[in-house]
Amino acid sequence: MGYIGNGPYQGVLTGGNIQDGTVETTDLADGAVTTVKIADASVTATKLAAGAAVPSQSGQSGKYLTTDGSTASWDAPFEGGVVINESGADVDFRIESDTNANAFFLDGTNGNVGIGTSSPDAQLEVVGTTGYRAKFAYDADRRIEVTHSSIVQTSGAAQSNSLNIVSRGYESGGGNSIIFKTGGASAGTGDQERMRIDSSGRVTMPYQPVCFVTRDSTQGSISNNSASPTDLVLNTVVFNVGGHFNTNNSRWTAPVSGKYEFSWSYATYTNKPSVYRTFLWKNGTQLSYTQLRNDSTGNSSNYNFASRTAILDLAQNDYVVLRASIDSYSDWYADNQLRTVLTVRLIG
């Protein structure tokens, strides 16, 4: 074979004159073949062996060259989805920014994602530059955990171990409210608002357990024994959120453990002097410290009216009943204006 270069045989050798394997890398000195020795467009797809052709670049701006091992082609970037590490190798994936080496980090061992950290210990962990840290995990505890050294407000001093939750969005119905909801089986379906803090700081809880019940007629056969009083029948419901007051037995049953406020009031007969007593009974036991005593003088021109409030610490399913006794008579007075009233609400 002759040589390729300047001389009488320049351009004589073509793709059809070179057999497979006849020219090896050892036959070409470094830099021997340069662009000045290859005329523009002198090497084309038709001059290369079948399968080695490079597709035309015309109209392929922005695309990348790929091959299936035998045929090369141009593909649009990320068209049809992208899979990284499809084989499932235990390797980490990291994206840097100009100031953060771990702007995005995926732990190849456990799949945890970190923003600002290379060692996320939750499904998503976000670490700020001054000690703020938030962790989000859907595990047995379904938790969102926020830890930090301090929170610095826009104005005012730093507040150690505080968490600021701020709403700055626009809500057409009532300003910048913070709304707490519980959701249905799937996202966005069956969500129920449980608590709202509006822009004025007012807190509403539409499903907070509360009741307002009354009696507007006289009840007979009241016990004369304060140690064994009679259940007051409160059979008119003004409201009973959650249905925790049972009008069949006049019991309030605690839906959750917590502090409950009980308030009640009643009037006495004007012409029947006696001692009228009420007590709260919890799970069948009298709470002596809740006694409300009203001594009627029998003055026919005046009604005696009494009221009281008590706060009870109840466990879930504890029940409370309002009971009464009269020393000398058996009728418990009530009418449409002078009702016996009981209100209950969960306060904490």
Structural account:
This protein is mainly β. It has 4 domains: 1-50, no CATH class; 94-151, no CATH class; 165-207, no CATH class; 210-346, Sandwich (Jelly Rolls), CATH 2.60.120.40. The protein is built from no helices and 24 strands. The strands form 6 sheets. It has a 6-stranded mixed beta sheet, with no helix packed on it. Strands 15, 17, 18, 20, 21 and 23 form a 6-stranded antiparallel beta sheet that branches. A hairpin with a 4-residue loop joins β17 (245-246) and β18. The protein is rod-shaped, with a radius of gyration of 42 Å. The N and C termini lie far apart (98 Å). The model is unreliable at 1-12 and 149-159 (pLDDT under 50).
Entry summary:
The chain is mostly beta strands. It folds into 4 domains: 1-50, no CATH class; 94-151, no CATH class; 165-207, no CATH class; 210-346, Jelly Rolls.
Fold blueprint:
Elements: E1 64-67, E2 72-75, E3 93-95, E4 104-106, E5 113-115, E6 124-127, E7 133-137, E8 143-147, E9 150-151, E10 159-160, E11 178-182, E12 192-197, E13 203-204, E14 210-215, E15 230-231, E16 236-241, E17 245-246, E18 251-253, E19 258-267, E20 274-282, E21 285-296, E22 305-314, E23 319-326, E24 340-346
Parallel strand pairs: 5-6
Antiparallel strand pairs: 1-2, 3-4, 4-5, 6-7, 7-8, 9-10, 11-12, 12-13, 14-16, 14-24, 15-23, 17-18, 18-23, 19-22, 19-24, 20-21, 20-23
